[in-house]
Design brief:
Elements lengths: L5 H18 L5 H26 L5 H13 L7 E7 L2 E6 L4 H8 L4 H20 L3 E5 L12 E7 L1
Antiparallel strand pairs: 1-2, 2-4, 3-4
Helix pairs in contact: 1-4, 2-3, 2-5, 3-5
Length: 158
């Protein structure tokens, strides 16, 4: 019996297929990043008005956190921890299931490279759509599986 639900298994298969195309030279990192960015930005544009209403009263970086992590990625709030570092910056610890982490591990790729080149551009673009001065970043010294427990991410107003 798998430790992953059917939906999680399907997500891993999809990401595995995408990353395998990169490994085989059929897609570049930037081409895959563009595909993911298009899908994610389409979602955010279609849902932004409703999401901003839902999170009215939160600072822009917290709006982005809730919209991207909980509404778009469907992360269980129990698997993500947010800490405010300053009036304009939040730190996020992501403990959630991640299909890219699983697919990257299966293909023996480095998450630091895949997450930076393939995943980060789409999240940055989503942040910019939510608020043009938002910046998303990761601490690549503190990312799974290299640290073993969570991925450390930041959203801030610049």
């Amino acid at each position: 019996m798998s430790k992953f639900s059917k939906n999680e298994q399907n997500a891993i298969k999809e990401k595995f297929k995408q990353l395998k195309q990169v490994c085989n030279g059929l897609l570049s990192h930037s081409e895959l990043a563009n595909i993911i960015t298009e899908r994610r930005t389409s979602w955010i544009k279609n849902n932004l008005k409703e999401m901003l209403t839902k999170y009215n009263g939160l600072a822009p970086e917290e709006q982005a956190y809730h919209i991207i992590y909980f509404d778009h990625m469907k992360i269980n709030p129990e698997h993500s921890k947010m800490v405010r570092l300053s009036p304009t910056k939040i730190r996020i610890e992501s403990y959630n299931f991640c299909p890219y982490l699983e697919a990257t591990n299966q293909l023996k790729l480095d998450t630091r490279c895949i997450c930076k080149d393939v995943g980060e551009p789409s999240i940055q673009k989503m942040c910019e759509i939510i608020h043009p001065k938002l910046k998303f970043s990761r601490n690549y010294d503190n990312i799974r599986p290299h640290n073993g427990t969570y991925c450390e991410e930041f959203i801030e107003i610049i």
